[in-house]
């Protein structure tokens, strides 16, 4: 890789992991506002841990098909740098959110097959500031710890900025990036000791591995 790989740690829930991620200068830290997720965070905790943000790390608020009242609460509380839309939000909804909050947008897309993916990328690329290519949804919209078939992206010229997500770990990230030529990676379950509980040590190991790609 000629450019530094962008790194996003998603599902941070405590001050130590927030401080660890930011001290490593990761590009993005994701806070999950989705009640069905084991990584869901309360407004009170979110407000308390963003105090540990430092350097140039950007705060991403992950939501799933939220209404404006809920987005208002998140925005007024933590002023995220990005809203990550991880549901079935249409292009028009993404544009509404972007205009209303004057906030950048990350849109998550499921990778089921290359034709559908390329169609979705073409639809969203001019609205989203960043796309996140993730494994197909099973029980949860993201954070399931399962990779998709990276070979689907091999030698594909994707004309948009995007992050690779889904089942990444320190052990497979080098191979994943080499196959997909991703400009950045997003990890959640791959740096957890149990579902929903992240490990500062695993975060450090993953970031170190990414820096060596």
Summarize the structure in words.
The protein has 213 residues and is α/β, with parallel strands linked by helices. The protein has helices at residues 15-23, 43-49, 68-78, 91-101, 114-124, 173-180, 200-211; strands at 6-10, 28-32, 58-63, 82-85, 104-110, 130-134, 162-164, 184-187, 192-194, 197-198. The longest helix has 12 residues, at 200-211. The radius of gyration is 16 Å and the shape is globular. The termini are close together. The mean pLDDT is 93.
Taken from the alpha-carbon principal axes, the silhouette is globular
Strand order of the largest sheet: 7-6-5-4-3-2-1-8
User: Which class best fits the helix and strand makeup?
Assistant: alpha/beta
Average of per-residue pLDDT values? 93
Q: How far apart are the termini? A: 6 Å
Question: Notable features of this structure?
Answer:
single chain, 213 residues, alpha/beta, two-stranded antiparallel ribbon, 32% helix, globular
In short:
With 213 residues, the chain is α/β, with parallel strands linked by helices.
Strand-helix topology:
Elements: E1 6-10, H1 15-23, E2 28-32, H2 43-49, E3 58-63, H3 68-78, E4 82-85, H4 91-101, E5 104-110, H5 114-124, E6 130-134, E7 162-164, H6 173-180, E8 184-187, E9 192-194, E10 197-198, H7 200-211
Parallel strand pairs: 1-2, 1-8, 2-3, 3-4, 4-5, 5-6, 6-7
Antiparallel strand pairs: 9-10
């Amino acid at each position: 890789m000629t450019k530094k790989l962008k790194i996003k740690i998603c599902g941070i829930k405590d001050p130590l992991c927030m401080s660890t991620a930011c001290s490593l200068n990761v590009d993005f830290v994701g806070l999950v506002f989705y009640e069905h997720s084991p990584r869901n965070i309360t407004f009170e905790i979110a407000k308390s841990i963003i105090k540990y943000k430092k350097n140039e790390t950007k705060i991403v608020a992950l939501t799933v098909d939220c209404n404006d009242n809920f987005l208002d609460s998140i925005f007024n509380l933590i002023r995220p740098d990005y809203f990550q839309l991880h549901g079935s939000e249409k292009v028009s909804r993404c544009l509404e959110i972007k205009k209303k909050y004057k906030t950048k947008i990350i849109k998550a897309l499921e990778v089921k097959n290359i034709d559908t993916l390329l169609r979705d990328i073409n639809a969203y690329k001019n609205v989203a500031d960043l796309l996140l290519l993730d494994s197909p949804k099973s029980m949860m919209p993201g954070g399931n710890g399962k990779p998709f078939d990276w070979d689907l992206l091999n030698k594909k010229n994707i004309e948009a900025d995007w992050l690779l997500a889904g089942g990444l770990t320190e052990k497979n990230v080098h191979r994943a990036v080499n196959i997909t030529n991703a400009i950045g990676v997003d990890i959640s379950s791959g740096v957890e000791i149990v579902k929903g509980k992240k490990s500062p040590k695993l975060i450090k190991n993953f970031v170190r591995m990414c820096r060596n790609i």
